[in-house]
Amino acid sequence: xxxxxxxxxxxxxxxxxxxxxxxxxxxxxxxxxxxxxxxxxxxxxxxxxxxxxxxxxxxxxxxxxxxxxxxxxxxxxxxxxxxxxxxxxxxxxxxxxxxxxxxxxxxxxxxxxxxxxxx
Length: 119
Description:
Layout: E1 2-3, H1 11-18, E2 22-27, E3 32-38, E4 44-50, H2 55-109
Antiparallel strand pairs: 1-2, 2-3, 3-4
């Protein structure tokens, strides 16, 4: 496989507009193009295989990219809702502990808690 740096319609350059991590390889044995994405660790993830480099490649990549970004937004939203739920549970637990400690203050100390306001 060899990198495709330039082609008739500059598809190899225009895929970088969609995602800078995308690149195109040409498989000389199969006579096909492979679109791949570089991961953070340096490995390449296969995105799609095409016979010809034309506008359809960009259209499919844009559609795929929108779906991928939509999924990432959904994951972020789920993580945010989980964080909010954890904060709510922590507040409820703190309130429960506080109310139980105030109710039992009279028995433990022997002085009603409402009479500790001032001297």
